[in-house]
Amino acid sequence: MIKNGMAAIGVALLATLAHADDYLSPTDERVRLSLGAMHLSNTTDIRVDSGTGVQGTPINAESILGLNNSDFEVKFQAMVRVDEVNRLRFDYFTLDRTGQNTPTAPIIFRDVILQSGQPVESSLSMRLLSITYEYSFIHNEKFELAAAASINDTDISAQARQATQTVHVTQTEDAAGPFPTLGLDSTYVISKRFYIDARAQYLKVAIDHVDGSLGFYELDALYRLRPNVSFALGYTAVKAIIDSRKPTDSGFFDFNTKGPEVFVRVAF
């Protein structure tokens, strides 16, 4: 009886281990939740014209206003598969930066003039909430390729402030609204433990004297530690351009951020 009991325990243990190693292809996962961090390098070129039509001063926000040219930001992404070929993805991207510098020449920033030789405090925040529908026109255990269409709720806010005994000026600029992008999303399964995710989305539009473009690019290599838990190393990039020629709201915004990322993914 002892031998039979030990055998039963052994069979149960083997069954448990086998169950722990059950393999579900990443192309068949129904739900994904990814959370991690990105180390981003930023480049921002801005020109904000005055309300009277005077062209603003073109500046690089990192070198002229002292905004951080690199920082760490949180990465969050979720995916829900409706059926074999239809799925939804949710992404949230945020970037908040502050800086201080003393310009060497006057800067026209909308309806204020930032004086040279006086310290300027600045801030720039950007938030993107993306909801993406994807249709997989290639889908099997080893490879999936989907067409993607997104609505990106974009919110950009910039502020420049100069406060001394002789100068007191503050100017805030906000731009918000939905912006569409189109692209491709793919998964390539190398082995039971390793797979690669890649996506690229971009769109350029021109509406009412405003030209704009928005692009997302991401490449990740994932290692599956457990059937439902993976760790990833990757690289991501976001690029946004707004060129407004509206008579009372003209200007230019060119933002580029990119860098490595690490995250953990839980999938079912």
Tell me about this structure.
Helices cover 9% and strands 68% of the residues. It contains 2 helices and 13 strands, in the order αββαβββββββββββ. A hairpin with a 4-residue loop joins strand 3 and strand 4. It is elongated. 27% of the residues are buried.
Any idea what the shape is?
A: elongated
What amount of the residues lies in strands?
over 45%
The percentage helix is: under 10%
Strand order of the largest sheet: 1-3-4-7-8-9-10-11-12-13
Number of distinct helices: 2
- Low-confidence region ranges: 1-20
Which descriptors would you attach to this protein?
ten-stranded antiparallel β-barrel, 268 residues, disordered N terminus, two-stranded antiparallel sheet, mainly beta
Please summarize what this structure is.
The protein has 268 residues and is mainly beta. It has helices at residues 2-20, 61-64; strands at residues 31-48, 59-60, 70-81, 86-101, 107-109, 112-114, 120-139, 143-163, 168-189, 194-207, 210-226, 229-244, 251-267.
Explain the layout of strands and helices.
Elements: H1 2-20, E1 31-48, E2 59-60, H2 61-64, E3 70-81, E4 86-101, E5 107-109, E6 112-114, E7 120-139, E8 143-163, E9 168-189, E10 194-207, E11 210-226, E12 229-244, E13 251-267
Antiparallel strand pairs: 1-2, 1-3, 1-13, 3-4, 4-7, 5-6, 7-8, 8-9, 9-10, 10-11, 11-12, 12-13
